[in-house]
Amino acid sequence: MLKQAHAISEELIEWRRDFHMHPETGFNVQRTAGIVATELEKLGYRVQRGVGKTGVVADIGEGGKMVAIRADMDALPLQELNDMEYKSQVAGKMHACGHDSHTAMALGAATIFAKENLPGRIRFLFQPCEEDADEEGFSGAQRMVQDGAMNGVDFVLAQHIDPKIKVGEISICSGPNSGGVDSWYAEIIGKGGHGAYPHTTIDPYNILAHVIMALNAIVSRRLNPFAPAAVSIGTVNGGFTENVIPQSITLTGTLRYTETHIQKEIHDEIRRAFEIAKTLGGDYKLKYVIGAPPMINEEKVSELIEVVGKEMLGSENVSAGDPTLGAEDFGSFLNLAPGAMFNLGVQKKGHEEFLLHHPRFDLDERALPIGTAILVETAMRLLKE
User: Which one of 20, 99, 206, 372 has the minimum C-beta count within 10 Å?
Assistant: First the structure.
């Protein structure tokens, strides 16, 4: 499979650079999705467009088990600072998280599968909006699941490029690999008034100070220290001039977890922190927007990827991954079928310090055939087993 993937290296690079030059964000990935769907139709896939708003689902093969391979297509709202021939041509948008390469490698895998005598079925999930969510708080993976993209799937695979790892290396580990993520939105309500007469007000800033202390103590003092979690404040807004104590203050934040019961505990503790507002004479409003669940790699699929990686690249080039509480909505697919995501080394000389989401991020394209081959070989073995 590695030999077959290297044989299509030029196509992989061409696809990746084209997507890189024409980045699209959120669910607005019509150009990318259109190219993907057209290429898949040429290869003989049964293609559904507009899944999860703008995603693409493509099937090939008959009978037996079904293995799904997911690739995200969206870019970031970021101005690229690189100066190369394939740099972004869209102001304020950039593929700084490698989704251009994910899409290219999935198309490469589809090209190889189209030539194989498959012992089952392969499904590709080309997903929009991994980096964001729609107005109702749903990401691309969640919208594709709602549209039935995982119906009939027995296993699901994905990869994510990693600029901290050298080309020719991968990392994979079972269990929790990224955190579930929810957002919270709050308002602390006091009583406004003149800054010279604070005793006539209920100062929301005073309440805020106590609430911040309580929020920052949730992980360190209210949760089991062996349970990975994070509670962070992202924005605080209030007031409009220097000598007026405002009526209210708004603040927003994020929370991360890997276990469902910890998610509920965090929700309860955040609410408890805001109850301080009532104790100090004020009030509050609080709402949650539930995001993607944790990404938990299934043990046997993770072990299979490790075996494939060692056979293909050598044991010394396969390592255990470092779990993170960063968000990755691939967990929405893993909730419905066993599977795993591995990290693909793409470190580029001269860009070692420019990691994911950096405006000067770039990857070493020699890694593209490697990621393609590991996806194909792992999927084929899952079908055969």
Answer: 206
Q: What is the pTM of this model?
A: 0.92
Helical pair 99-113 and 9-21, crossing angle rounded to 10 deg: 140
User: Are the C-beta atoms of 321 and 342 separated by less than 8 Å?
Assistant: yes
pLDDT per residue over 249-265, tens digit each?
999 999 999 999 999 99
Q: Do 239 and 307 reside in the same domain of the chain?
A: no
> In 10 A of CB 349, how many CB atoms?
7
Are 257 and 283 found together in one domain? yes
Identify the pLDDT of residue 223: 97
Question: 237 and 378: one domain?
Answer: no
Task: Verify that 84 and 130 share a domain, yes or no.
Answer: yes
CA distance 120 to 118: 5
The four Cα atoms 125, 131, 133, 139 give a dihedral, to 10 degrees, of 30
Answer yes or no: do 143 and 43 share one domain.
Answer: yes
CB-CB contact of 250 with 186 (8 Å):
yes
Rounded CA-CA distance 249/241 in Å is 13
- Residues 137, 17: one domain? yes
Q: What is the Cα–Cα distance from 44 to 344, expressed in whole angstroms?
A: 28
Domain range holding 154? 2-176+297-384
Distance CA 342, CA 178 (A): 12
123: how many CB neighbours lie within 10 A of its CB?
24
In Å, what is the CA distance from 120 to each residue of 64, 182, 185, 226, 372? 4, 37, 46, 41, 19
If you count them, how many residues does the chain have? 385
Q: Which whole number is the average pLDDT over 48-62?
A: 98
Q: What CA–CA distance (Å, rounded) separates 219 from 266?
A: 8
Q: 137 phi and psi, to 5 degrees?
A: 90, 10
Q: State the pairing for strand pair 66-72/121-127.
A: parallel
